[in-house]
Amino acid sequence: MARIGSKSTTGWKATISVAMANYIEAGSIIAAASSLTLWQAYLHLNSISVGLLSALSANAFGAAIGALFGGYLTDKYGRKFIYTYDLLVYMLGVFLIAVSVNFPMLLIGTIITGVAVGTGVPASWTYIAEEAPHSKRAAHVGTAQLAWSTGPMITFLLAVLLAPLGLLGSRIIFLHLLVIAFITWYIRQGLEESAIWKEDKEKEKTDAQLGKKSRSSLKELFRLKVNRQALFLLIGIYLFWNLTAGAMGYFMPYIYQNVGGLTNEQANLLQAFLWALTVLTTYVVFMRLGDRYSRRFLFGLGAVMGIAAWLILTFTGMNWFSLFAFVILWGSAAGFGAQAFYGLWASELFPTRYRAGAQGFIYFLVRFGIAIWSFLLPTIMDTLSFKVAGIVMIVFLVIHCIIGIALAPSTQGKTLEEIEKERFGTVRDGVKRAVTPTTAAEHLNQ
Question: Is the predicted pLDDT of residue 6 greater than 80, yes or no?
């Protein structure tokens, strides 16, 4: 087991070091977003090239591919295995972006960065949930959302401060992510492996010695009705929310400038304010209230606020009143919105042996969807108008709101083991018994 000196990284220090995957991912998206118009001018990029960068980035398909493989590797070789290598690849990607002098360099660096951050995200949400006290799981999982929000806030502030340097300032922002990644990677080498994962692997070995066959995790993910229900909920809230939020993460400064007529500095400052509100509500609402109050209500409140924000932006035009109303509503709602609850529920609703793999699969679908939408969005805005794109965004948000409110699970205050027994039990002779997921696959209604 790798360690830093003679000390291991445990407790909140471990949670924070793992949550930094979200700072790095979101920071990468925002670093690209805040510099998009600068790269466009420097390399003379057309809308197709802009869409391609977005579609293959940490915001979309690059992260999708990374998550698909990262989730599988996390379940097979351990949560700690990912933390040994993923940030080394990430550092290569952001370094390439920082020193890019042509479109191929920029595109290759973007793809490498996207794959690396996608690999780490399922592992981070899984590890945090598995190591968190059951009565404070939302508080610990919320740390990942807090890091996700802090990354963009700091990155946008850096973009404002370094704006006089032009593209050089953007290169410096990517180098700052490289430094953060190295520090995080170093601290993570002292992490203990997830205790739940180790216990589950030991049980698999014991079952194998007794001659018990193990079903394919991927097959079981789709064969069990309880899993299909979880997939419908999680894909429903995370995909449709992210089709709007993901496009915002990459294109909002671009929209502010090209549709609203703001300067690059004004756009970045506005986004920094938005993310500061998200940081605030992540802590005050999700982390402090998510373990004590109705999660269905909190999710619904955030979803409705997000819809209201986009109604204002789409139908009132981009003036300073509508922009500030949008930023206040969306920025506040995002702190306890779909992403925060997705990270929590996705870790609770699947058994240990394919918890990360299930998240990787969902994340793949979501980021693949964002990749397609991100590729189309610049052309839609150029040819049909921003209003048309805004209406589509609102429809996405309404769908995610309905699904989340209707299907929010009752998992609050329970250990992961208790949740797993409840969801993967079977009934014989009128008595509900706890069974393993593999046995459940043989008995549950399929």
Answer: no
